């Protein structure tokens, strides 16, 4: 039913809106990218925090980038296996690596070298570290815990995932700041740490709140401190580290990287596209459900790269203090 | 006595014991991380096993020698260096080559070639089978694994990467 | 009661039933193909459940999970290449039985026992879930150590007359389990300064290598003279009532063990299958027949792993703690609907929980039928002569090893264990002890070292515990008894010879 005039008009509107759409895009689309499926390599098993992060971000990203995005889980050796796989692929932006704090720790151990291997893409999440105790424990607040630990040096047992991990680092930084002597008992998978504290076999659990929310609500785990500069809206009664005088606000962060040598335009384009995926409601809903919206986590490539270097320095210091590296 | 020593069991015990001894020295290179004043470090369990392994090897050798001296084991159990092992060596070489070339040539192109060679090696002579099954199976696996389940089967490099990209 | 009725109606809606049936079938298929597995399948399905009713989506995922736990045994029985880790033990007796021409019977026992084990655990779970969860939480490191040790000592019984050889094979397995980054101190062990072994040795490539690849090499050498042994009967036949009655104690024991181990956080259906097999050997009147293709050897692990699959749902639903890889993925299925499994879900949405229980019950029955269909499909392969089948099995072994973590390292490990398996067969070493030790080695070592660190290296704290101590004591008694029995039998044998 359209006449010629309205045709011209419509196509004009269409072209203008196309133009607007492109100019809004921060980074220009590199020629010919993407022309094949993108693979995202996750060094942790399906169902974990990192896997959920990647899958939920890539669900909207598929449509935005206009290509298939396949997620590959390559577990083992704290990410070294997955990193080697990524490094064996061409640096063309079709292979993305889930970059986690473990890569910095591996570099300190000499197992990887993040500076020479990877170029930062984006950081997406800044999760929070919290400590929890069993409701039957003798201490129900962080002050009581510290007083108890001072009376019984070396007796309080903390638990988290794997040795020389971000979990252990934050626990030991806290112990040092509070002037207490504690023991760290690692498990290879997070659920086992929950069970150990729930069963009363260990004393203090380190975990991100998202994965134990139901246990907190059921009062089976009592949160005693959050490592942040202010209290969380979700847990107004839980003190934050800064108000207690401990300047510790680190928590697990989740981000992505590509192989070093990937052209900068491609990096910028992926980063801009992921930002749009990040803002989509499907991702935001997941982030809300997993309590990942409590701290703003987005960092663009340059910012993320700078962050790696500062984190790496502080990781090295703590590992040295603990005696893991010389 | 010399005959007894040649028994395969004795030779194997000797190999096991020697390997265990070597690995025992290897445990000394483990980084001695001692963060929590711990006993039972990284080397505790491997050493426990290696020592038991040496003891067990000695036990096996002792039992075998004792039995042989008593004449309880028939002579036929000696190690034989037969010449009919060419097929075995060929199979091992074929597998090793296949695995070695997989990252270079990719699953799609290399697998049918390997299967045809393997079938021939196992004595299959029916051309109809040899030239149908490998292609059907490879194609089927590639489609199910990569299209349905997103398993990144090796794609190969260069020209082979391009061929693989036609399908996955 | 009203909730139960409402949930019942929920499950018996056409859409839900179709999803459960489809999920069970897809699960069995995924399990049966080496290299594909149910955690992978559920992870891929989660985005689709986003668009479904929460209950329907979760029913679909649990149905895939139930089917996947069984599916692996099809390829384990027919080709000795377990399609899923849970089926690792099934091949010990399933494959020899299939080789002796009774593949159909072996598959029938596996399907029937899987179904019975699954149903048993679902019933137990829906009745006393919260109580079971608190029992599970009372287990700590000493109990895990005792459990692992109890299963490991059964190596003594598995070697037949060659007890020392069985122990040596066990030692090799234990040693292989220590390779990689030490889970307690993060030191690298036996990695020889390379990256390849840093991730350790996954037991699936090792098992596929030692059994399937080892056999291919043996056949290549022997030159296929005996390939006339075509499998005569591959059509699946469910066991008759009388055969099931013969297995009743094995099935009941395994169902209880499987459910109990399933609810322990972090020990999954695979370990359950190994423990179930060990216990079947321990209580059997003819332990020496295990590994030659007897019904008990299939019934025990199959009942156990499916019972454990149900058991693993207990800590998931009551505490939000996944007991296995697939249940960890299923948490993601809850989260796309903004729910988190755990105590609050039980209080807030009991209807959903009961629907899931009923769905699992139904899924286990559907699994029986889909199992028959898929088994029938796969058993057609068995009719092909070995000169064609051998290379096909090898390709499946390769992708099966590759699919574990999508890495070539695992494929090379498979090849290395193929050579080891070949050598062990050649020199008459039993292979099963090596695999058992490889699977349970880390649990034994780390629970001992972690438990001792927790007890401040005070051995008495570690040993004198009600549950753990009892298991340790019983283990010690049976071990001494086995060794004593063997030595006695041997001396009797010598006496009769010299006389």
Report what the structure shows.
The complex is a heterotrimer of chains A (326), B (168) and C (499). Chain A folds into 2 domains: 36-127 and 252-322, D-Maltodextrin-Binding Protein, domain 2 (3-Layer(aba) Sandwich), CATH 3.40.190; 130-226, Periplasmic binding protein-like II (D-Maltodextrin-Binding Protein, domain 2, 3-Layer(aba) Sandwich), CATH 3.40.190. Chain A contains 12 helices and 10 strands. Chain A has helices at residues 4-24, 49-65, 80-87, 101-109, 114-117, 142-151, 166-178, 190-198, 213-217, 264-279, 281-289, 301-322; strands at 38-42, 69-73, 95-99, 118-126, 130-133, 157-161, 183-187, 204-207, 222-226, 253-259. In chain A, the strands form 2 sheets. A 5-stranded mixed beta sheet of chain A has the order 2-1-3-10-4, with helices on both faces. In chain A, strands 7-6-8-5-9 form a 5-stranded mixed beta sheet, sandwiched between helices. In chain A, helix 7 links the parallel strand 6 (157-161) and strand 7 (183-187). In chain A, helix 2 (49-65) packs across helix 10 (264-279) and helix 4 packs across helix 12. The longest helix of chain A is centred in the C-terminal third of the chain and has 22 residues, at 301-322. Chain B is 68% helix and 0% strand. Chain B is mainly α and 168 residues long. Chain B has 2 domains: 2-77; 86-167, no CATH class. Chain B has helices at 2-6, 8-26, 44-69, 86-105, 107-121, 127-130, 133-148, 158-167. Residues 494-499 of chain C have low confidence and may be disordered. In chain C, 67% of the residues are buried. Chain C has one domain (2-491). A two-stranded antiparallel ribbon of chain C has the order 1-2. Chain C has 22 helices and 2 strands. Chain C has 499 residues and is an all-alpha fold. Helix content of chain C is 75%, strand content 1%. In chain C, helix 2 crosses helix 17 (350-379), helix 4 packs antiparallel against helix 5 (90-138) and helix 6 runs parallel beside helix 22. Chains in contact: A-B, A-C, B-C. At the A-C interface, helix 2, strand 2, helix 3, strand 7 and helix 8 of A face helix 3, helix 5, strand 1, helix 15 and helix 16 of C.
